[in-house]
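Meet today's protein:

…
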Amino acid sequence: MKFIASSISLYKNLMALNDVVGSNNTMPILDNFLFELSPGKLRVTASDLETTIISTFPVETESEGEVAVPARLLVDSLKDFPDQPLTFIFNVETNSCEIISEIGNYQLAIVSTAEFPRISSIEANGSVNIASDVLALAIKNTIFATGNDDLRPAMSGVFFQLTPENSTFVATDAHKLVRYRRHDVKSESVAEFIMPKKPLNLLAKSLLPTADDEVTIEYNSQNAIFSSGKMKLICRLIDGKYPNYEAVIPKDNPNQLVISRPQLLDSVRRVAKFSSKSANQVKFSLNNTELEISAEDLDYATQAKENLRCDYEGDPMEIGFNSRYFLELINHLDADSMRMELSQPNRAGIIFPAEVTDKDEDLLMLVMPIMVGY
């Protein structure tokens, strides 16, 4: 068996799959790419059992067959080649692969494909089509807010909630929450599932930048399949029930703050450096024209205070936030001006973009307060 491919093209295609290959695989065969040759094309599969990516692209070949090729060695080797055609010759009797370039020959060992896990046919219960840029936004706006608590695995992924009216993507770690809703993405039936972080990161890095205009998501109770163009990602869903996120979003918030997001971001960053390293607390003191941001650390006798102009409607109030969680949220808010809705010092603050630029987009961020300690 043999094929010829551009070194740069092959490298880019394999890099899109390389992050699936884990460093501590329980099955040694998973350290390899599965190469499947058929006339005119190469189908490459990478898997860690939980997540599988399959990519198909054209190469010069008349061969048919399959081999397992060491993933990391091959990718590391390809990145140092200038753009040129490379010839790959596989000998399954000696378990070897010879690579021929314009200036040299290279050899690496291959292994039998018998133990490589095969994806059985997955029967989908439903599907939805979503524009690739919209899916990329949904991942970007939520994945940073997921949790890392092994005792609450459901919160370590992004919750997909698909309905005939809209689609909602939610992430929370119990300290902060993001709800990203799209009114232009609709499913024929109601479906809910939790996507793990790793395949979402792989989607954002590998599939979406090379995707066609649309990605098809198929799903059942255990798996989800993301397909676009010549690439497909199959992953196992997180088993469990997602918490009732709507219950933690305060509905009646009479106190409303509108302020420049970049100014607030910079101010909180500066002031937070003077807060206690255990609580990272910053205090917001609000009146109708001014927001005072303050922090202090009694153990080290440090304190800081800044005042920002703002538009505030509501009763004067003081509320404390963990600066790390607050900064994570507003750093991911793509808006020049933001609106914050508050009810009481012991209830969550809700953050929105102050101006809606896309009528199909609805973004809500929530940050839990902490008790003001000074």
In short: The chain has three domains: 2-109, 126-246, 249-370. The longest strand covers residues 51-58. The domain at 126-246 is CATH 3.10.150.10 (DNA Polymerase III; Chain A, domain 2). The chain has six helices and 26 strands.
